[in-house]
Amino acid sequence: MRQTILITGASSGIGKATAIHFYKHGWNVIATMRSPEKDTEFSKLENVQLAKLDVLDVSSIEQAIKNGIAKFGKIDVLVNNAGYGAYGPLESFPRENIIRQFNTNVIGLMDVTKAIIPHFRQNKEGAIVNISSIGGQMTFALGTLYHGTKFAVEGISESLHYEMKELGVKVKIVEPGFIATDFGGRSFDFQAGDIKEYQPLIGALMKQWQNPNNIVSPPSLVAEVIFNAVNDGTNQLRYRAGDDAKLILDSRKQMTDIEFFEMMNKQLGK
């Protein structure tokens, strides 16, 4: 019997790559996105259900889950992938942008998770995969909002795994490094502002991000890590995705705060 996966934010990047990867491995896929009417690929595939799901709209979450169960009979895995990054000096962000960042990356993730738990509880099995980031274990300059959300995802996931274990449900965290996605485009909210004191730091960070020597992995690599996490049969919680993720997180773990900050500042030319 085919297993079924529901993925949020499946219109591009990691979400799309994950949907394709699981489909190719014989899974039923519920590919959810805010504007499914714009899709030109998934609607042509058998065993793929397109669904409208906006993590800021609880009714759309509940409907997508309900329709998915109606079509495939059961959902085995949830991948909470939808999200975006807000970067810039904290005082440059309007309050509504701050709220939107946390509502999307944190509250939305919890709303989707909460909505599917009763189904998993009834089945006494399932898996929840939350897409975090290396930015859920360490920080870059100007990422107060983004890192705040990803640190929250890490804590939510780690604590959730205790109660989900009682239901036979596994919780997994995937931590990608730099990935070649639209994160720097429509999935990116950068507020540089016009406060002169921050401009040197902003310039240094932009230069660092544009370094051609940066290790950048394709979304398909993250999809493979997600697939392995779901199918490895272990209770492992965290999975790194990308050589840079392994290198940076190992460094963060081995260094003191002062040592790590000095290394990061050196990269910024500080």
* The CATH top-level class label: Alpha Beta
Overall, the morphology is globular
Q: Which architecture name does CATH use?
A: 3-Layer(aba) Sandwich
Order of SSEs, N→C?
EHEEHEEHEHEEHHEHH
Mean pLDDT: 95
- Domain count, please report it: 1
N- and C-termini, Cα separation: 57 Å
Descriptive account of the structure:
With 270 residues, the chain is of the alpha/beta class. The protein has one domain (4-195, 215-249): Rossmann fold. 46% of the residues lie in helices and 16% in strands. It contains 8 helices and 9 strands. The protein has helices spanning 13-24, 58-72, 95-123, 144-165, 199-209, 219-231, 243-254, 257-267, and strands at residues 4-7, 28-33, 48-52, 77-80, 85-87, 126-131, 169-176, 188-190, 238-241. The strands form 2 sheets. Strands 3-2-1-4-6-7-9 form a 7-stranded parallel beta sheet, sandwiched between helices. A two-stranded parallel sheet has the order 5-8. Strand 1, helix 1 and strand 2 (28-33) form a beta-alpha-beta unit. Helix 1 crosses helix 6 (219-231).
Which helices and strands, and how do they pair?
Blueprint (H helix, E strand, L loop, with lengths): L3 E4 L5 H12 L3 E6 L14 E5 L5 H15 L4 E4 L4 E3 L7 H29 L2 E6 L12 H22 L3 E8 L11 E3 L8 H11 L9 H13 L6 E4 L1 H12 L2 H11 L3
Parallel strand pairs: 1-2, 1-4, 2-3, 4-6, 5-8, 6-7, 7-9
Helix pairs in contact: 1-6, 2-3, 3-4
Can you tag this structure with a few keywords?
single chain, alpha/beta, Rossmann fold, 7-stranded parallel sheet, two-stranded parallel ribbon, 8 helices, 46% helix
